[in-house]
Structures are given as C-alpha cells and as structure tokens.
Amino acid sequence: MKLEKEQSAVFFNVSIPSIILLMMVSLTMMACNSASMPEHGTQASPARPNVLFILADDHRWDLIGKYHPIIKTPNLDRLANKGTVFTNAFVTTPICATSRVSILTSLTERTHDFTFGRPATGIDESNSIYPKILKDNGYRSAFVGKYEIKLSGKSEDKFDYFKELLQTRTVEYQGEEIPQTYHIAELAKAFIAQPENDNTPWVMAVNFWDPHAHDSDQENQYHYPEEFEQYYQHVTIPDAKFSRDTTFAELPQFLQESIGHVRWQYRYGSDELYQKMVKRHYRAISGVDKAVGMIYAELEKQGIADDTVIIYAGDNGYNINERQLAGKWFGWEEDLRIPLIIYDPRNKAAQGQEKSEMALNIDIAPTILALAGVQAPKSYQGESLVPLLQNDQHASDSWRQEFFFEHMYQPKRVSIPPTVGMRTKQWKYVDFYKHDFQQLYDLTKDPQEAKNLANSPQHQAILKELSERTDVYIQEYERQRTSEVKQRTSFVNQRNEQDSQNKKNNEYE
Question: Given a cut of 60, is residue 400 above it in pLDDT?
Fold first, then answer.
C-alpha cells in the first residue's frame, strides 16, 4: 500500500510581477510564524508533557510496516495506530546534517547556512534551537546519538544530558557488546530513569544512526542486530520503479556520473546485490523499531508513558535503486519524503488519524514548543502542527499549499549536483542550476514522476512561474539570515549567478 494522495490543481498567473510574488511569500511566512489529552477530553491539556523526539537516519516515508507489504515495524505501527501519521511529510534539504539543523532551528538551509564543510551555526541560530528554549523555560533537555553538526556555544548550555555518538556497529556497554542501535536506546532509557526528572518535564532528542549505510563497508553497507538476520530471508523484494537501463540512459550525464550512481553500483548494481542490500536496509529499520519499543517500555516502567508525547521522523528520504541511483540528494519524492508520526497520549481524538497536509521538518521545533506551552521565536520558518493534531478546520483550510527545497552541499571529492526547487500539491519543479537542467512533474497525473515536462511547449508558462516563485523564496529566505550569516563571504549557490569566477573561488572544500 502506498501513501499516494489525490493531488488537486494549483494555478498560477504568470503575469503577476515578481514584487507581488515576494509579498505573497512574505505573507505566507508571517502566517507560518504566528501560528497520551485529558482522559475524557477533546482538547490538549495545559499540563507540560515530556517530549520524546526520535529521528532515524535515511528512513524514507513508505518503509513503515503499517503501509508496506514486507517491512516489519510493530512498535512504529503501534505509535501510528495510537497517534497521527502525516502522510505528506517532507524535508526542505535532503541530507542529514542540514536537515538536523533545520529540525532544531526551524530554518531552511538557505537561512541557517549549515551543511558539511560550512562554519558552525551562528550564535542566534544556536540559541534558538528548541532544546535550549525549553531548557530556559524549565525543562530538562537531553540529546542521545548521531549529532554530526556544529552549533555555536557549549553543549552544556543547551543540554542537561548530552551523549554524542559516532557511527559504529557495536558498543561495549555495562560489560556486554551490544549493537549501537540498542546502545542509543539504553542511553535514552538511562536519562528517562534519572531521579532529577521526577518533578521536572523533559525533552529528549534520540537520533539513531541506522538505517544509514556504513559507507566504509562496501560489502555489507547496512548493519543491524544479529537477531534480525533471518528477517526477509525468504521474501523477494519487488523491483524499484524506473530501475532499468533504459531509464538510467535518459538521465543527463552529470546525474549518471554522480555519487548516487557510484554508490548504486555496490549497493544495487545487480539483481542479487539489490536483494541482499534492501533486505539489510529493512533489517536495520526493524532494529530501530525494536529500540523504539525498548525506550517506550522504559516510559511505562517509570509510569510516565501517558505524560510523554512521542514524535518519530526520518531526517531525509532515500533512493533505493530508483533510476539506478542510491542516496538522497536529488529532489524526487523518494529523496524528500519522510515518515512523521506524532503520538500524544493525552489527545484521544487524534488516535489513528492521518493528515494529508504538507508537513515539513522545519515544523517539528515549533510543534514541540507548542506542546510544551512555550512561544516559538519569531525567527522560526515552520508552523506548529498542533492545530492539525487537534483537527482545527481553520488551520487545515489555511495550511501551506507549497514549499521550497534545496540541496547546497558541493564536495570536491564526489559529485553531488546542487538543486533548488519547489513542490505544490500538483507540481514539482527542480532546477539543477549549475548544470542547466530543469525538471517539471505534474504530480496529479504523474505521481511517480516518470515524465519530465520541462521541455514541453505547453508547460512553459507553469515552468516559468515556478522558477520565478523559487527565486522569490530564495530572496525571502536569504533576507531572513542573521547578520552573522550575511557577513560570510564564502556563501555560495546563488542561482543565476553571472560571475563564474566568484563561483569557482567560493566552491565548498
């Protein structure tokens, strides 16, 4: 079963001047910035719940057992059945480091300016992350697992409990060698059990490394607890969409030569390899699922499960042999879409519901603050999802109809082509602007993104309109940078930049 939803048409007037477009986007962003329940109630309790945010690495939206015919995720299924699933959840940049900073700050990459090879986030950005805001408002804050970002300032100013972990397969913990996924769960459990939490609400981010590949291990790539070795052994994984040679041959040369295809060769380059690696990837997700269950069991043991909101998400999507690519950097649905489950045990009315509104990773921070009854900073670019959880019809009717996305990382050691673009309910526009290649998909008629309409004569008006709107988003998000970020002379990725020498001088290392 797929999570495809019926898309409705969005029409644009191509004659609207750019200044009016800028005003429209600005008004939209202003609106964004504004905005287990009591046992027998239908509205959220004013009590301050604990908030447990769980993030998996490279877990794309459709690999949840509730919606997938093969993969087994019983604990995530239970959260989904008891909470709310956002069936159209996306990231604004599909790469782990940038997405994680966007989750913490509620800012797009264009504004916070962080990816691999960039300076630490600015002081203002670092002080606006939701764990610090809650810590400053009486919460205890914790972080466990994959960090791999750089924030200005000291971690102890933001977190009362901070356990940053590099990727490993196993870890010695309390005299026993255990999988890292379980180690992360044990550290999370240890925080939950701290007596300091008895009379103080807490917020904790648990960031799993799995199911991210171990890039140095080309033979096996994905690792998981040994108990899952037999999972999916006797199942044949169906072919990925558009995974045949004919589709790959239609891609432009820069995509054929990108790191996405390089990694494809040792992940999915033959039918046998594809079966092996996808099953290993699925097992790693099932391992994360068990760890989620371990953490939830600790909440129950401590008697606080009914007072703890749980949010589960992925940090980006993931290509699994689609178009003979591996990775997540390109702008197709498999790159941008993530699972997003919110279970508030106090909110009985939200049990088992699905929401089709566009939810973004930048919505997570304002949502967590709203759940805690703390006002979000004006700098936040996302929206609180709480009104949607409470079935607020006005919030649903006025919800965003589009969003901007991009990928700005350009390492010299491998080829990752930068992108900008936007997605509406009907249209997907992607510009690989340094390679003079655009994509346009009509998601209503072509949800699989099979036919690129960018060169279609009858679609040039909508192509132009979406391109102009993309520029407006860029202008607006750059305007919202702090003065510290604006002063960085090495900022690159200006779309339509004319000075090629400046681009050359400012390439990322």
Answer: yes
